Amino acid sequence: MIGFGSKPSRELALEVRSPGKRTSIAVEGKEHHGLSLYNDPPDGEVTTEDLVQLAVGRLTVLQLLDRFDQPAPKYVSEGRILVDPVRDAMQKHGLLPEFAPGLPEAEYRRRDAISHFILRLALCKTRDLREWFVKQEHKLFYIRMEVLRPEVREPFLAELRESGYMTCTPAGLGEAEDVASRTPYCVPGEPFFKIPFTEVPPNMLSRRQVVLKAGKAFVPRRQLSQIVVNKFRDSLREKLTVAFNGLPKVLRDNRMGELLTRLSMLNNVVGPSYSAKDSLVERMCPENFDMLLARSVPPCMRMMVDHQRDARAHLKHQGRLALRPFLRVAGMEFQESMRWWRAELGRCKGINGEVFEKNYKYDIEHTYAGKGHMKLQNPYSCSGMLNLPPPSAGQCHGCPFKILDQPSLRKLMMKWKIPAPAVEAMIGRVQGNHHQLACVEYFKATHQGHDGDGVGNHPNQFFNQSCQHYKDQAEKAKAASPALRTPADYPIGSVSPASAGSGLCSSDRETPCGSGAPTATPREEQARRAWEGARQEGGEPGGDDGVWIPELVSCDNQFRSGAFDSGSTVTIVGDA
């Protein structure tokens, strides 16, 4: 049992039964016009299948709000949702404050409460998860309230005032006329409400959207919605803390614990799904870093690496704090990370081995749970990168689509050889403040044939999707040319130094070049003859006939000169 509301007597029953049977779960009694403040958990029964379906539907909407990453007021204008994907998703999953035809009002409210409370449980485990959930639910509540028809919204606000949720009283006619002349946000004839000064959000005071008089804040009716939404956000933050404190009781039921874990892992925008390297498609290491930097590293991380190299000066603290855990989760082991940072910082002015040991080694050990609180440091999500403080002079961190102006962004994309049409598509997304969608456009431009699905929530997700894309391409190429072999067909010991750019790490090699490894197999000889034939005809391997012919490379490039040293190891490297 665990209490969620302000009243400890209300509890959420978490007895999960087998699929097809009923799950006892706590429903809120009185609701307001399709909107709920979620003060009390729901009662009734729901199947485990419905429980997961409702939670995943709501989570889909919250992730869309996170992906567009706009302030709540920009989603709605004159009672209409401006972002089509958000409106469609809310309609599909029953989150618009309108009752669907044939769906009773009580059932609509029940489903809404269940989806909220199960996600409240699933996303209360860490501070990052709680803050993400509060931020997106705040946006969702604002949108749902603003799209209410005026004849519905007014009674809703009136009920909130009468119930004591909002401490406000209508201003008298004389007071309203007096304060109306002191604020530009007043519409002629608009009523004012008196609210205690301490309940007014600071941003409303700084923008002079309210009038202060005798310890009271006079708020125009149009601004009441913002106060209600902010009060909802603060209340939800407190309730998540209560849920977190009671979570151990919930997890005693193994089936409920498994369900909540699956739901929290579905939410990959804040990093928990990328805290381990189990799902890596391709492992990053110092030997293949430069190849992966141009191919698969997301623009936020690539920008920081380029800045450190071009400026020959170390990244400032915030940049290193973002880059270190990204490299860890991308596959770099501790010793490899130490070697990479030592080499990179060695290019910077004034940093030698002694300075590195003194100023940088501890932070790398901290990232790998060797120092400090002895816990692995998780990478920032896209939301985290977007919310970093703006870089000042000498700093480089954050999302390039947010921190760079258009000329600087175009210059950076030109340096990375991104096609002009794709750059303009990114600029269009940036102008609409859709920074994560601009990153999706970048991914599509650098990964031909990919629709960008699954990208835009996490830098390590970007990296994994990129590696998967190129792995799929290599498998298709291999299937199209079964007679030819790719580096994956070769034993680990027969890899030459020339294959450092093929994605193989030094720790994966066992037999050095020229150590007596086998010479060429019949298939290698067949590929070599095809390659030489193409060169003699003046063409390039992999000609117009569409046949994939890899480039043959020996460790000393002897195949390029036509010689073949039987003591050297042969590696076939090629791009699909």
Structural notes for this entry:
With 576 residues, this protein is α+β, with helices and mostly antiparallel strands. Helix content is 48%, strand content 7%. It contains 23 helices and 12 strands. The chain has helices spanning 48-68, 84-92, 105-122, 127-146, 150-162, 173-180, 202-206, 224-245, 247-250, 254-266, 289-295, 299-311, 317-330, 334-346, 353-359, 361-367, 382-386, 400-403, 406-415, 420-431, 435-446, 459-480, 522-536; strands at residues 2-3, 11-12, 22-25, 44-47, 76-77, 80-81, 169-170, 192-196, 211-213, 216-220, 551-554, 570-573. The strands form 5 sheets. It has a 4-stranded antiparallel β-sheet, with helices on one face. Strands 1-2 form a two-stranded antiparallel ribbon. Helix 4 (127-146) runs antiparallel to helix 8 (224-245) and helix 20 packs antiparallel against helix 21 (435-446). The radius of gyration is 29 Å and the shape is globular. Mean pLDDT is 75; it is low at 1-32, 269-273, 490-502, 509-519 and 539-576.
Q: Could you list some keywords that capture this structure?
A:
single chain, 576 residues, alpha+beta, four-stranded antiparallel beta sheet, two-stranded antiparallel sheet, 23 helices, 12 strands, 7% strand, globular, disordered N terminus, disordered C terminus
As residue ranges, the low-confidence spans are 1-32, 269-273, 490-502, 509-519, 539-576
Shape: globular
Q: Could you tell me how far the N terminus lies from the C terminus, measured between alpha carbons in angstroms?
A: 57 Å
Measured on Cα atoms, how large is the radius of gyration? 29 Å
Total beta strands: 12
